[in-house]
Design goal:
four-stranded antiparallel β-sheet, 2 domains, 19% strand, 5 helices, alpha+beta
Length: 154
C-alpha cells in the first residue's frame, strides 16, 4: 500500500474490521468530514486499492463445510503458463481463493466442500483440467481457528 497516507491506511484498517461501518462513524474515527472521507473511499475504490466488500460467513452453521487447501505445481513458471492458469482459475467460483506462491508450489488455492464426494468432483472436473498443472496436493481442514484479518492496532 505504498503511496497511501496515514488517513488512507486508517480508513482501510477500519473497513477491514467493519466494512458496514457508516461513513459518518468512519469519518469521525479518522478525523475527517463525512464528505472528505467518502471522497477518499471512492478514490481508493477507483484506484483498485479497495477491490470490493465481502461477508465472512460462520461455517459452523453449515453442517459439514470443510475448507480444502490445495497446493498446485505447474509444469513451468513462464508468464504464459501463469497467465493461462490464473485466467482459468477465475472461471471457477468453486475456487474461493488463489495465491501465487514462493517455495515448494506455485499456487495455493482454497475451496469449500460439504463432502469428500464433492471434492472428488471438483478435483476431477476442475483442478485436474487447469492448464499447465503437473502436481496437485490437497489438505482438508480439521476446523477453522481464525477467519478474519482483524487488526487491533490503532
Amino acid at each position: 500500500m505504498a503511496g497511501l497516507d496515514a488517513i488512507d491506511r486508517n480508513i482501510i484498517r477500519l473497513l477491514r474490521l467493519n466494512a458496514r461501518m457508516s461513513n459518518i462513524k468512519l469519518a469521525e474515527e479518522v478525523g475527517l468530514s463525512p464528505s472528505a472521507c467518502l471522497r477518499r473511499i471512492r478514490v481508493l475504490e477507483h484506484d483498485g486499492v479497495i477491490r470490493g466488500y465481502t461477508a465472512l460467513v460462520d461455517h459452523s452453521s453449515r453442517e459439514a463445510a470443510m475448507a480444502v487447501i490445495i497446493n498446485i505445481t505447474l509444469d513451468r513458471q513462464t508468464e504464459d503458463y501463469l497467465t493461462r492458469f490464473e485466467t482459468a482459475v477465475r472461471r471457477h467460483p468453486e475456487i474461493r481463493e488463489c495465491y501465487l506462491m514462493t517455495g515448494g508450489s506455485d499456487y495455493l488455492l482454497r475451496v469449500e466442500v460439504d463432502s469428500a464426494a464433492e471434492f472428488e468432483r471438483i478435483h476431477t472436473e476442475i483442478l485436474s483440467t487447469l492448464p499447465g498443472v503437473s502436481r496437485i496436493h490437497s489438505s482438508f481442514s480439521i476446523r477453522n481457528v481464525l477467519a478474519t484479518r482483524r487488526s487491533s492496532a490503532k
